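REQUEST ID: PR-0412
SUBMITTED BY: lab tech R.K.
PRIORITY: routine
TASK: structure prediction, single protein chain
INPUT:
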Amino acid sequence: MLPTLTTIKLTQNLYDALFQYVLTEDQEARLKKFINILEEHIKRKDQTPFSVPIKDLEFLDDGLEELRLLNWQEIPVTVFELVLPKSGEGDEEERMEPIIDLLERLAILTRPGGHNLIWAYPYAMVR
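STATUS: complete
OUTPUT:
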């Protein structure tokens, strides 16, 4: 999870810091993708924390320790999948909207990639 300081400048500094851990073209491409996702999150000014699964960052090897030194945290995230019964009424996204609205009143949520998975964060860790 990204620390509270969030600016586009941070992403460039982060890229510079993590680039030293990138040894292959594949790792460089994955780092660029990670930085792009971070920049998009910052530009959207989301109210939810920016986070990615640790397994998606394992390519950084010692770079994960660098993230910890930069105050990034590992926090537990509960993953839910919202499955709606088939219906001829409206598209799935439209039908999910009121359910997501209700859940957002109960927990801090994000939907990575805009699909049916929902990540729920512990209040104590992100407030």
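NOTES: The mean pLDDT is 81.
REVIEWED BY: pending
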